[in-house]
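stuck on this:

***
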Amino acid sequence: MKILLFGHNYQGSRLAQVHEVLQVLSRMKASLAAHREFYELLSREWPDVCQSIEPIDCCSDYPADMALSIGGDGTFLRAAEKIGDRGIPVLGVNIGRLGFLADVPAEETEAVMTEIIEGRYKIEERSLLQVEFDGRPADFWPYALNEVAVLRQEISSMISIHTTVGDSFLNTYQADGLIVATPTGSTAYSMSVGGPILMPQTANWVISPVAPHSLTIRPLVVNDDTDITLRVDSRNHSYLLSLDGRSIMLGTDTQVVLRKAPFPVRVVKRLGHSFSETLRAKLMWGVDKRE
């Protein structure tokens, strides 16, 4: 099995966890390659381990059977960006904090990898948002697995976001920003501003305003088969467009169109795993701290 590794710059105990994961993979006798930035970190820390790891540039078409994201959900999102539309399934090993995408604890890596080698796993396809706007830089990846947000600049006042769903005008949001989240991203930024949680396979987006200037404005769930068009007014004639934390500044004369991407991200999950179980574990549903 060919496994493509993604990671981040770790320190202290987390770095030790990375080493433990690599030792597990070494015992599995998997063929390993690492994204070049991650490989450079590994080669500095454990040059002997890297003798069996091939450094690659993820712009090339590496024929991996699976990608392993070692970190938190942020690392997983970067791995999805590097993989793009190549369809390589991604497994998230969590050495970060709260992880919905990276939901395999580092200490369970050996058990999970044994299950994978034996073919005892499933793949979930997660939808992405695609963003279109005039003047997009060639090196800006126009897809988001979690969410797309339009936000006011730090020094600016509230912005107005004119929002159209399909051919129907929805609302002009007077707010600090507006989030359009995928089902996967419904447990991320959108949840923090009061948006609903969607099951991962739901064919919907969530539109969640950030600090709206109206008590009656609430998050809205819409179908994912229609375009969402956003036009922004701002006193300083600019606003921030953010895709999974990757940001670009746009002028208010730039209209943004969101639609469902033509490809999904394929996520590796253990058999018997359920999203309900993840919610209970990560959000501590049903836990009474008084006991």
Remarks:
- The chain has two domains: 2-127+264-283, 129-260.
- The two ends are 46 Å apart (CA to CA).
- The mean pLDDT is 92.
- DSSP finds six helices and 20 strands in the chain.
